[in-house]
Amino acid sequence: QVPYMLNQPLRYSSNIFQRFGFSSSTPQQNDKEVHEPKDQESTAHESNGEASKEDSGTEDLDLSKEDLVKLVFEKDELLTSKDEEIKDMKDKVLRSYAEMENVIARTKRESENSKKYAVQNFSKSLLDVADNLARASSVVKESFSKLDTSEDSSGAVPLLKTLLEGVDMTDKQLGEVFKKFGVERFDPLNEKFDPDKHFALFQIPDPSKPSGTVASVVKVGYMLHDRVLRPAEVGVTEGGPSEEPEEKSGGE
Prior knowledge:
The chain is of the alpha+beta class. Helix content is 60%, strand content 13%. It has a 3-stranded antiparallel sheet. Strands 2-6-3 form a 3-stranded mixed sheet, with no helix packed on it.
């Protein structure tokens, strides 16, 4: 009989449950009833908060005309100061850039000059050697021209000739080495005196030549590229006709 009763549907009314103290309502209904007043309270608080925000916003926006003018004036002053700062920074950047360009150009020029004139001191120390070789060559040639080869019984003439050829070859080779490194010799004979390239040792009275003409060269000069390595030591004429000044342009 027990299984039969379990399989049968319940036929008890709600009054039976209420008689023993049980409620016939479901828990879900009770929970719904409980949460409804809480939701109403939260919505009420939110509506009150929004109303307060709107009130405060209206108070903030409710500014006077003087306050607005003052605010605009402060903003203009701030923009003006920022523009001045930008101009100052731009000027500083341009100046720094120009200074860097000048430093780069100066460094490049100094580097090129150091390479170009690196042999200046060494070449200058060899100028006396070149002078001695040139002087020896001229003296040997002059002495060789005065010798009488028919009376040469000791065979000194061929030796002297060989010595002359050796001195000439050495002098020529030294000149080629000088030219290879930019050192060139110049002889200003019969040229106009130039104080930048010539050094006057004495004056020679010569009315046949214009005054200031190089009439004698004691030592030739040398140039290292476009720089005077050693000025030529010369004698200058005086007493001759002076050169006419160049005519000025513009019909003056």
